[in-house]
Write a structure and sequence with these properties.
Layout lengths: L7 H14 L8 H17 L9 H6 L1 H24 L4 H15 L2 H4 L6
Helix pairs in contact: 1-4, 2-4
Length: 117
Amino acid sequence: MADDQTTISEMKALMAQFVSERNWAQFHDAKNLSACIAIEAAELMEHFQWTHSDAVGKIIEDKEQMAEIKEEVADVFAYLLSFASSMKIDLSEALRDKMVKNAKKYPVDQYYGKFKV
């Protein structure tokens, strides 16, 4: 099923079932899961190491490399789902709250089309 047909709750349940079937919950505490997120994110970054931004379009056209990138994205997402479950974080609520905070921090009239620190 596609993103527009799947809920975050369904994805969390999929991960929880996978972890449960393997009795891995004992290893899936916040510390370990946060480390796993960072490790998998670093593996995702490796696909772009030493690549100029204007060359990213070529990566998208490379089916083999895109398959590897897709797997790394899935790994990051899987661990994020497990982390959120273990910490009882509602991801939808967390994102909405963060976007409200970001909208105040980066007002459109001051940041439209520009980046400033």
